[in-house]
Amino acid sequence: MGTAQRFDLPGTDAFTVPYWQAAAEGRLLLRRCRAPGCGAAHHYPREFCPRCWSEDVEWVTASGEATLYTWSVVHRNDLPPFGERVPYVAAVVELAEGPRMMTEITGCPEEALRIGMPLRVAFRDHSPTNGADSRKGGAEGAGAGCAGGAGGAEIRAVPVFRPARSADGPG
Question: Quick check: is 9 in a domain?
Fold first, then answer.
């Protein structure tokens, strides 16, 4: 019997292989413009700077820190495997480097969510040996790597965000 089509993993191509490899290693990558006078970081990954249109951009490791910009709690979703996850929090976070990113908030009850709350990246593990929806957090998530395919990549980990831990204790 075949595997059901999944709708939670984005399409990949040869350009995004470094992004997915880094995610499998527990690192979030952004693109940063190297053009004089620009230096803008951007996300989603693309081959040019959306601010100045320069093609002189590079991959850089993000800090993994963000704040919650907005969110919505999804109570119904019929696409596999989302139906098994409801309710879940779909969100936009503002990364410390400036860009905003669509993601999911995990490890936080809905009533505790607040605009501007500090968040930290974590990674949902999609490697075949760990199951389709196990979770690993932040830098401790050192996945199995990203196997490149013909022009694309097998996605082994997807960035999600969790509340940041405060210096005073767990958060």
Answer: no
In this structure, is residue 152 part of a structural domain? yes
Whole-structure pTM value: 0.78
Nearest to 26 by CA among 62, 68, 69, 67: 62
Looking at the domain assignment, is residue 118 inside a domain? Answer: yes
The predicted pLDDT at position 6 comes to 62
Which residues sit opposite 65 in a β-bridge? 120
Residue 102 lies in a domain: yes
Of the listed ranges 43-52, 88-97, 151-160, the least confidently predicted one is: 151-160
Q: Which one, of 116, 121, 156, 124, lies nearest residue 20 by Cα?
A: 156
Decide: residue 54, CB within 10 A, 0-12 exposed, 13-18 middle, 19+ buried: middle
| For residue 139, pLDDT beyond 80 | no
Choose among 127, 120, 96: nearest CA to 106. 120
Find the domain containing 47 and state its range. 15-163
Total number of residues shown for the chain: 171
Q: How many domains does the chain have?
A: 1
